Structures are given as C-alpha cells and as structure tokens.
Amino acid sequence: MRIAIGLLNGMLAGATPVLLAALGGAFTFYAGVFNIAMEGMLLVGAFCAALGSFFSGSWVVGVVCAIAGALGLSLLFILFAIVLKTDEFVTGIALNLFAAGATTYLLRQLFGVRGAFTDAGIQAIPRVDIPIVAQAPLVGEVFSGQNLIVYVAALAVLGCAWLIFRTPFGLRLRAAGYNAPSLESSGVRPAHVRVAALLLCGVLCGLGGAFLSLGYVRLFAEGMSAGRGWIALAAVILVNGNPWGIALITLLFGLADGMGLFAQGVGVPAQFTGMAPYIATLIALFVYARRKQGQRVGQA
Amino acid sequence: MSDFIALRHITKTFPPNVIALDDVSVSFETGEIHAVVGENGAGKSTLMKVLYGLLRADRGEIALHGRPVQFSSANDAIAAGIGMVHQEILLIPEYTVWQNVVLGAEPRTRWGALDSRRAREAVRAKIAAFGFNLDPDAPVGQISIAARQKVEILKLLYRDVSVLILDEPTAVLTPLEVPQLFEELRRLRAGGKTILFISHHLDEVLELSDRVTVLRRGRKVDTVAAGSTSKAELARMMVGRDVLFAGRPAVHAPGEVVFRAEGVSARDDKHISRLREVTLEVRAGEIVGIAGVEGNGQFELVNVIIGLIQPAAGALSVNGHDLTHASILERRRHIAFVAQDRSRMGASLSASIAENAIMTHHRLNETFARRRWRLDMQQAAAFATRVREQFAVAMSRPDQPFRALSGGNQQKVILGRELLLDRPFLLLDQPTRGLDVGSTEYVREQMLRQRDAGRAILLISSDLEELFSLADRIAVMHRGEIVADIPTAHTSLEQVGYWMLQGREPAPA
Q: What's the domain count of chain A?
C-alpha cells in the first residue's frame, strides 16, 4: 500500500508540469497555431521562478516571475509568427533553442554555476492540506497535502474545458483553427484569438515551469524541462486538444515517470528509468495510431 | 419606394492602371431585388466590395438613407445593416448550424458562458420567420451546399441586416436547388429586405429581379426594369453587340461510330457502384450531350474514359482502338479532353501560360524535345503564341503565370491546347461552367465548328439549355445508368428533366 501511494504521488508530481504545458498547447492547437514552443516556455518559466524566488525570498514572486518569463516567450512568438508572419514551426524551434541557450547563459552569468543552481534562499511553493479530506485514510494521503500547483493544474483542466467548450471565446477559438476565413467573415479577427491562445499558453507553461523548479525541489538545472514540453505537444496532438484527454494522457505519463523513480529505487540504472516516460509516450502513439487504423477499416 | 442606398460617381483603379469602376452611379430601393449583371471583369464584384467596405473607392460616395457613409470593414457594413454572402461559402463544417450562425455575435449567460439555449432559440426563430427548411442542430459538414448557403444568409439575418448582397449565389447550386433559393429570396423581399444579386445568368436575372443594372468594362450601361427588357437586350448591353444563343442544327447526318463505351461499370474506393453498364456511342460529326443531376455518375464516366478510374467491367474504344486498359498517355493519342475543374485538373495555375499550352503536346509531339529530354522553351512559347492567335486569347506574354488570365481566357488556352491535338474524339466536361456570356458563346461556337469538321464530341453539362442548343443526341444519367438516349429533336426539356429526377420510368403523357 505504501508503494501504491508513493506511486500515485509520483504520478501526480510527474504529470503536473506536462499537464499544464499541454493545456496551454491545447489553446494554441484549437486556435490553429502550430506551437511547439512549450518546451522553451517551461524552461524559461522554471528559470524565472528560481530567479524570482531567490532574489525576493518569496515563492509568490517566483511564480509571478515564471509566468512573466513564459509570457515573454509567448510575446516573442506572437511578434514573429503572428505579426511578422514567419513560419510557426521555425519560430518554435528558434524559441526553444533560445530558451535553452539563454537560461544556461544567465545561470552562469548571474550565479556563476554550471549545471544546477540551488540555494537555501530559494523558497518552494507550499503544500496544501485540504481540511476534511486530509483526515480520510489513504484518500487523504493522495488527495490532500499536494503541492499548490497540483491543485491549480487540476482546476485548470476544468477551467480550460469550460473555456474551450462552453464560452463564446471557446467557440471563436476553435473556429480560428477549423476555418479562420469563416471566423474573419463573422467579424472576429483570427489573429486576436491566436494572440489570446498564445498568452494563455504562456501563463499555463509559466505555472508548469514554476512547479519544476519550486515544486518538489528548490533548484534550477540546465535543460530542466527535459522534453516535457514535447511530451505535452504529443499529448495535445494525440487527443486533438481535448482537455480531459490531455489529463488522462499526462497522468499516464506521470505514472510512467513515477514507476521509473520506483525502479531506480530497486537498483535499475537511472539512464533506463529516465526513458520510461518517453517509452510510454511512444506506446501511446502506437496504440492511438492502431486504433485510428481500425476505425478506418471499420468505416469502409 | 425610396432611394435606400445610393452609390454616386464611384471610381476605382487598381494599380498600375486597371480601371475597375469608372464613374458608376447606382441606387437601390428598399424592398427590391436588384440584379447587377456583367461579364467577368465588368466590375460587378468590385462595386459590391466597395459598397461592403472591403475595398475603398478612389472617388465617389456612398449614401445610406441620404447620409454619406464610409465602411472601413465588413463589420461596419453589417452594423449599418448591409450583409454579403460571398461566392465561396465560408462556414465551419465541424460546427452545427446554430453555432455557425451565432459565431462572433454569441448570446452570453450571466457567467459569461455561451448561452446555447438562447442562441438555438434565436436561430430557430429566424429559420421559422423566413421559412427556411433547416435544422439548427445539424452539423454543417453534413448538409447540402444549398443548405449551407441558407446558413450564410441566416447568419446575416441573425445580425438583422436589411440589405443582402449575394455574389453569384446560383453558381454553387444544382439546377433543382435554384427555384427554392429564389422562392426564399422573394420571401425575404416580402419581409422588407433589399437584395442585391450578382449574376451572369440572364434567365435567372429576368426571373427573379425587379430591376437590373448592367455593367460593362467598369462602366454602368443602364439600369432597367426587369419587366421591360429581354435576355437578348441584356446580353447586348453586357457584351456591346448581338450575342448568339441558339445552336445551329447539324447540316449532315453523322458518320461512323468514333467513340464506343460498352457495358462499362465502375465502383468508387468504397466499393459502391457508381457506373452501371453504361453503353454509349458517339459518331463522327455528332455532339452527344450527357444530362443528369450532378453526382449521378458523370464524374466517374469522365474519369473512366480518360483513364483515372479503372472500369470494373466493359470496354472502351476510339476508332476501333481498344482503350479499356490503355495508359492515360496512350488514350490522349485519341482523345482531346477539357476537364471540369480548370484550376486543378485542366491546368496548373502557377505554371506559365506557355507551359500550360504545351501540356500533353510535350509528351506526344517530338518537336518539343531537344535531344530527346530537354524541353524546347522557344518552341513552347511559339506554340503558346499560336494558341493565342488561333483562339483569340487576351494575354500579354506567354511566360506569365496562368492564374493571371481571366477565367474565359484560361478556358480558351485549355480548349486551344486540346483542339490543336487534333483528335477524332473530344471529351468536354462542363466546358462553359463559370464563363461569362462572351466566352461561353466562343466555346460553343468552337464546339459546333469541331462537329462540322467531323469530330465526335461527348459533352457533359449541367446546363440543360446548353445541351438542347448544341447536342444532336442527349443521354440522361441517373444513379450511374443511362436511362435515356434520344435525339434532341425527339424530346423536350421537361421530359429530360423528368428522367434526370425519376430515372427510367416513362414520362407521364
């Protein structure tokens, strides 16, 4: 039972940053922006969170900095891909490379360290106890006492689903992706909708990044996002942006992540256990493709 | 009636020096259906775009209820009560009818959510008020083109416009859907709406509109009451000279059988039978017309003949050469082919005029090759010039992109290319679709000339009047079968129309 609870906690911790980034990606996916910059946004978010928390001694400032940093990347994306109309894919690649380079460079310049920066002055985001749930056996150990951002991510699923499927904004958002000229002829500028989607993506990725550096650890390491932004992209494409689907996929990813950590504990080399989430992603892709193929045959 | 909208002295020049509108003044009255007609390039669409705020006039003014207005976007125009349905339908297939209608002007709940109940009710009310036959919950991707057009109109009615501009609304409809649209437009007029209707189908214009404004080369020729004019007069105003509408009857009896299809069947990629034992003959010096509601096997028949679909059964031959399993290139040694879709199959829009002119020729005529494998571009340019001269194509240089040509001139290049192949059998799929009156007349004349020169012509057309004025025999397709094959002189429009809808059953006397 201990193991199961540990695994579930690991799953939630592993899933949270990917989930937030993927929800951000869902907005841009529906808006018809081919946005692959979530990886860079997570990384910048994580860096800015550590930076803000270190200099202010407050995790709140850290989170705000993370959001601001990721939004900065969003604004760059908007400037290039929407205002100057450069290719979205190339813009995304450039921003991801920029994020990796800039955080590494600043890490060395500001703190004079290579690899990872950690300091007692960095304040982590607190855990939250849910009053009644905390007392419940087992349930309490999973559903209470999680990091604040975990709850934020769970609420974000609800909020995103509501925004996308239940509001005029959502109707326009999806219209921008389905058929932008139609939206335009309805009197709404698709570019405005895309800007909004990218800004939302920045906010969510900023939260995800803050969780990476101030969630269960209090440090920033080079390349800390470790492909989570790409996994998020895969999750978005896999379920066509549906927030509930994204939640499911990212939980599976988190589970693989948690199992990897567990396997490490029993002596499997870290290099192998680190592969687990990516292998899980590949398996999910495979299953998905097979199912789609089956549907196609079924229709004929 | 009062002058509702007045356009005064509108002039619009596209750089460098194309004068699209030259001092055009028109007024529209409340509650009328006003047709704006003219050939392609006459300025109809430009005039409507100026009114709608999509283009800004260089000179002139627009007055609404006597007050000058200037719309800077479609939104402004809609807010002032003027809405436009574009030629290409812009809807979201993934959304339902009501979602498409309210998009951009959604009712909200107190919490800022989309009030789908209120939206659906509002759309339902509009549908009922104007007698449209639509289900608000149907996904737009699953309804017919005619129904989608209604959704576009509904979108504007939902925004409470009082003027509807329709840019060639019948171009996307099948002949059977047109009367219903007209009935709905009349109902809208009865409800006090003003309808501006762009068209170059003169029959439709005369049937539907109250007044007609004719444009020619950017100038207004006249505005006339539809009741006091005729098709011939309108055509004369549009083209600036008399236009031939009737075909000439064949002067001699047709000769030998050139094209023969025997028991040809075909299935689509979902294994659904689309063509059922079609047997058809076309003789030298004869035009055989294929009539039928679109989607009754014409597409498959053309593709089987040209070799894009392999027939499941049957045989094809031209002058005794068995082409049933021949390659497309081999078929093209015997068949000249004008495809229905100029921009996709008939030509490449981004290639040059010269390249388009020599397509097929460059494979079948050795003089286009230098040292067997290199294309002789001088020869190609010379050939394009020959097409221009022989087929009266208005173009400046053969190395221009094909898309720079107007629709009529594109079709002339394609037709010229195919006729210069000098084949015994001509397969023409909707050769006059989307062409203006002048170009249509030209293409029809060429067809008659080819017939008189002894070629066998198979003409697929959704324009029954075209078939009746050109074809010596009419074959009617219904659900992949030829249900009637009869000399044109022995049948009537009504009878063919009946076969198109009902199939083989004999027409009631």
A: 1
B238, B216 contact by CB (below 8 A): yes
Residue B190 belongs to domain spanning:
3-239
Residue with tokens 């056996």: A137
Strand B481-487 and strand B473-478: the pairing is antiparallel
Q: Percentage of chain A surpassing pLDDT 70?
A: 97
pLDDT at B206 over 80: yes
Same-domain pairing of B88 and B183: yes
Choose, out of A167, A171, A188, the residue to mutate when testing the contact with B (most B CBs < 10 Å). A171
Nearest neighbour of B113 by CB, restricted to A166, A178, A179: A166
B106 and B83 within one domain: yes
Residue of A nearest to B54 (CA): A185
Residue B400 falls within a domain, yes or no? no
Torsion sign over Cα A41, A44, A46, A48: negative
Residue B194: the pLDDT is 93
Helical spans, DSSP H, in A179-275: 180-185, 190-214, 228-238, 243-265, 270-273
| Digit-coded pLDDT (tens) for A102-141 | 999 999 999 888 889 998 889 999 998 888 877 877 778 8
Q: Which residues from chain B sit within 8 angstroms of residue A185, using beta carbons?
A: 74, 86, 90
The pLDDT score that the predictor gives to residue A295 is 55
Contact A185 B92 (CB under 8 A): no
Q: What is the ipTM of this complex?
A: 0.85
Binary contact (A186, B155; C-beta < 8 A):
yes
Measured between alpha carbons, how far is residue A189 from residues A168, A173, B104, B131 in Å? Answer: 14, 11, 10, 32
CB contact under 8 A, A179 and B112: no
- Nearest chain A residue to B92, by CA: A179
Q: Does B148 touch chain A (CB under 8 A)?
A: no
- Asked if B270's CB is within 8 angstroms of A167's CB, the reply is no
Using one digit for the tens of pLDDT, what is the confidence trace for B175-198? 677 888 899 899 999 988 999 999
